[in-house]
Amino acid sequence: MGVNENVLKPLDRLASTLSAEMDAVNALIRKRMSSRHAPRIPEVTAHLIEAGGKRLRPMLTLAAAKMLDYPGEYHIHLAATVEFIHTATLLHDDVVDESRQRRGRPTANLLWDNKSSVLVGDYLFARSFQLMVEPGNLRTLEILANASATIAEGEVLQLTAAQDLATDENVYLQVVRGKTAALFSAATEVGGVIAGAPAEQVQALFDYGDALGIAFQIVDDLLDYGGATETIGKNIGDDFRERKLTLPVIKAVAKADAEERAFWSRVIEAGDQRDGDLEHALTLLARHGAMEAARADALDWAGRAKSALSTLPKHPIREMLSDLTDFVVSRVA
Amino acid sequence: MGVNENVLKPLDRLASTLSAEMDAVNALIRKRMSSRHAPRIPEVTAHLIEAGGKRLRPMLTLAAAKMLDYPGEYHIHLAATVEFIHTATLLHDDVVDESRQRRGRPTANLLWDNKSSVLVGDYLFARSFQLMVEPGNLRTLEILANASATIAEGEVLQLTAAQDLATDENVYLQVVRGKTAALFSAATEVGGVIAGAPAEQVQALFDYGDALGIAFQIVDDLLDYGGATETIGKNIGDDFRERKLTLPVIKAVAKADAEERAFWSRVIEAGDQRDGDLEHALTLLARHGAMEAARADALDWAGRAKSALSTLPKHPIREMLSDLTDFVVSRVA
């Protein structure tokens, strides 16, 4: 997903509140990422899963279920499912993007090969489906199966849309809903469904996850053009070099004159990049206020995420989810 | 899976008996392989799905359900699910094997690129899970999710085992159960489960699919070394050039003297292949009766498939499934 999860304080508070459940999720993940027959599988999965991502997505599932006083244990399965889907998509993304680094470490496709990343990703997808069947809840199955399809569809759409200057903000939103927000919203929604929440609360959880995911991705787009000074474990200009039409660029292209348009066409569509092009791109983004406009969008989506929470019962976790939203956008505020 | 489905007469009789159901399966496949947002998806899936595979696997599901007088309609969903899983694995296999031809046509990874094949494969996997959720039957969900995990595990195992002379017939069987037989046995088993068959009939259907799948793969291995004179749409020696340790080679390696072992090590393990090596490999296979021994194994598995059928009720479809088994091995008899 190309998303950096450098969200510190509020996520730490969530992690502390949910530590018993997260331990259970981590134990289940370790158990299910093994393989009786193929030792390559735990090698690759351990490299990625033990690399210490923040586990934001499974935590959203646990938070939703706990906030609604779910007394059972299947939120553990659902949270592990969400992390498995996320990990599988990371493996395949790194193949598709030909990435060499993830979370500051070499990618699996670099350490092993593309074949291992493709097939171990498939294994994790299949394991995620095994996990999600276990609670025996058809509605959560449906939500997670639908999210998987939306993710894959968003990734394919990005393949063709990312290097096409005709891509507008509507297409961008479809891509982002697929590649990032679909798993956020499924994570929160299944937490509510397994807790037996009424329809309007389930909808509020979906809306929260959807808006948070979109804000999260816009922030990631901004950080890639130096939207913050903090260390983010990813180099400035990665998206530029990968010719990805992210939100700041889409906004700058929309305001480009003929000469600027020719520049974007050369570097993004034709992929002909030369020394100084990244600096020139940054100048164009600044000239048209594209960073500020994208930042305003991120804040707007964060606001929508927080309003969605108002439908949910008052609970310390609800406040943490609200703070988490502020924190996500504070990285570019 | 690298399996050629050139099974003519008995499959045609099955297809004719099940033609109304197969039409429904094909309509459902076409409907579900589409995408509202990403036009690349139907382009790629149409290329593969419309290429005219024999649809053997979905037909096994329909056959099992119909033989057991299933009155409902969900065997259509399950059969389409099976074909989607199969198609997704073909897309990923062709990336992993760097294949350039499939069913006599250029592969999707060649026509588009590896990225499209990986991501569209993921989309088809996700669509298969959406489809399999719809019947609302947890047992069929479990069987198909387990089969998906077994398939991926078999593929990963093949990655490491295929070019390692230490791979013996036990490991070979694990790989084949994964990459081929797991989907055959799941296809027949879910047909029985959805029909509400008693446990011993469901087990018999599993055993039939498992043994048929293994016989099928061994025959495919044999054909790759020229086990038959008929046109098979695949070149003789493909497995050799791809350095795959298939059953005839495993048998020849087991009987190899030091010099022969050095040859196999060079061409399979080291991948150093020269002019005349394929001919020399064929000589070694003949010297140790490896083709005949593999053929005997195929016949043995075909026999097991046919005995499994005896537990099932007498029915014209049961006879067709028996004839189908004979036909599969007749290609190398």
From TrEMBL, chains A, B:
Could you say which cofactors this protein requires? Answer: Mg(2+)
A biological process term (GO) from this entry: isoprenoid biosynthetic process
What are the alphabetically sorted keywords of the record? Magnesium, Metal-binding, Transferase
What the entry lists under SUPFAM superfamilies is as follows:
Terpenoid synthases
Q: What class of enzyme is it?
A: transferase
Q: Which domain of life is it from?
A: Bacteria
EC number of the protein: 2.5.1.90
Give the reaction(s) catalysed: 5 isopentenyl diphosphate + (2E,6E)-farnesyl diphosphate = all-trans-octaprenyl diphosphate + 5 diphosphate
Write down the Gene3D superfamilies for this protein, in alphabetical order.
Answer: Farnesyl Diphosphate Synthase (1.10.600.10)
Reply yes or no: does the keyword Thylakoid apply.
Answer: no
* Entries under InterPro entries matching the protein: Isoprenoid_synthase_dom_sf, Polyprenyl_synt, Polyprenyl_synt_CS
Pfam families from the entry?
A: polyprenyl_synt
Can you provide one Gene Ontology molecular function annotated for this UniProt record? Answer: metal ion binding
Q: Does the keyword Transferase apply?
A: yes
**Family as reported in the entry's similarity comment:** Belongs to the FPP/GGPP synthase family.
Q: What is the role of the protein in this entry? A: Supplies octaprenyl diphosphate, the precursor for the side chain of the isoprenoid quinones ubiquinone and menaquinone.
Q: What is this protein called?
A: Octaprenyl diphosphate synthase
Its source organism is: Paracoccus methylarcula
